[in-house]
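S1.2 Input.
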Amino acid sequence: MKMPKLIKRLCPYCKKHTQHGVSQAKKKGRSSLTYGAKQRAKKRGASRGYGNLGRYSKPAISGWKMTGKKATKKTDLRYTCKVCKKTHMQKQGIRAKKVEFK
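S1.3 Output.
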């Protein structure tokens, strides 16, 4: 999908239509569990009779039959206002294999 580098849209901070620079957010590395979740799981298994209640005994969802990686990912675009220099996000992403700025 080709997109312009500059686009005119409403800035929620200036409260008027201004020029915005368009950029794509970088993908973050994913962790299976957050730090807090790990601590809670550790505490749950610490006392007698609790354990993890079978939460980690099941295979990962990716190992199930009807799942898999999608061919396209949703776009994560950030718009930076040229007037106030503040950045805001799009409301919903559109599915695209590749985003190209012209």
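S1.4 Remarks. The chain is about 10% helix and 30% strand.
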